[in-house]
């Protein structure tokens, strides 16, 4: 037992020594990026999938658990692959040109996005839409910082909120098929199911009655 413990400690010392080597930093950063992508993807997707599945999806308990596990795995895997690809391409470009420039990030992310998130499925679609909203906010702030557009005299957020809600409810009422299925489900629950009830049970306690009364 003592010999096994000594071997393990020696292995850990060797691993720690390797991790301190600056020449391997880029490669090790790619590996840790893969790890962080997998962990973060699981942390983000698992609770979201749990809530959305049990709120809006039908099926047996086992089918729901399988759906949650599949969504979590897909999100975790894709994010891990993307971080691995992005950081690997970033390191390769920097090594080839001898320095890091802003275009490297854009090109590496474009290639990673094409390869990893190019498949049009519900998970990738949600991630892209999440990023798109943040990009629009970021570009608007950048345009103000750079002086491309003037600093607003008043906070434009109330107007933005009005336009966003006005547009999404108009689309839901008259062009519903253009919205993502999960958003359709949420809005159906909020705006259509609230129009239907039969008694106190499905007015206050439940959304819909499950009996045949």
UniProtKB/TrEMBL annotation:
Top-rank lineage group of the source organism: Eukaryota
Pfam family name, one: Tim17
Cellular component per GO, a single term: peroxisomal membrane
Alphabetical list of InterPro entries matching this protein: Pmp4 (IPR019531)
Transmembrane segment boundaries: none
Name listed for the protein in its UniProt record: PXMP4 protein
Organism: Cardinalis cardinalis (Northern cardinal)
